[in-house]
From TrEMBL:
The keyword Transcription appears for this protein: yes
SUPFAM superfamilies: GntR ligand-binding domain-like (SSF48008), Winged helix' DNA-binding domain (SSF46785)
All residue ranges annotated as the HTH gntR-type domain in the record: 18-89
Superkingdom of origin organism: Bacteria
Protein name as annotated: HTH-type transcriptional repressor NanR
Keyword ATP-binding: no
Organism: Cupriavidus pampae
Gene: nanR_1
Amino acid sequence: MSTMFREAKQGAIGIRKQKRADLVAEELKRLITQRNLRPGDKLPHEVKLQQMFSVSKSTIREALKSLEVQGLISVSTGPGGGGTIVEVPLDRTFQLMQNYLFFKDVGIADVYTIRRLLEPELAAGAVAHLTEDDFAALEHTIDLCDPASKAAAESKMLDQRQEDLTFHDILAAANPNPMLRFCCELINEMLRQLVVFGNETPACEHERFGAANVSFHRRILEAARARDAGEVRALMSAHMEECTHYVTRMNGRVHGRLVLDSEMTRRTWLKPKESDES
């Protein structure tokens, strides 16, 4: 048994009794940190891990499963199998966040307070890093939501509100600040998964909301193409204020619930050319 593992096991006594698999999982996290393992790197094979920690195969597999559930590794079987480091997916992070927020009183006003603070800076910071592919993708999302377009006429209004968020996802992906990007992407996923509108909300309200979003998105895109970060910031600030107004008027609310694993399929935006071919 490794010295570190023995010390971890002894340190747990008097605090709480930890399962061997939990202790091994903690040691594997230390190993990932100490070796600076990156996505795509592999952990030692099961037999080697058994020797390192002097535990059974079942204990090692339980520890690996724990790390897989946390989103830190993927586990494969076979001769070349074992644990491979992966980047923790946003959808898993969102699910864990919602587990926490489920027991909190989070309202739509709380969500939009954060959006009003973060989205203008997110958009402004993205301007210098947007590529021609990004501009094309932004234009594509606008077309999908434009009431005058054929694509919008063939889609449902709530699907269009989902597509509105893709516009913000593209800006987030271009922003080099990982913390700001992370926060805004989590909020976008929260809006997708948890925000609902009152059944009494008339269709014309959704139409007005969609048209207002398209108008702001077009102006933001134009300013971004001009590389005018200040104008993008100002437009996004006004856009978030208007969004708050519409969502409040349409009785939008956060539907507090636990998000299921089966719902955790991360939405990705497609460039127009790829979308047309699908």
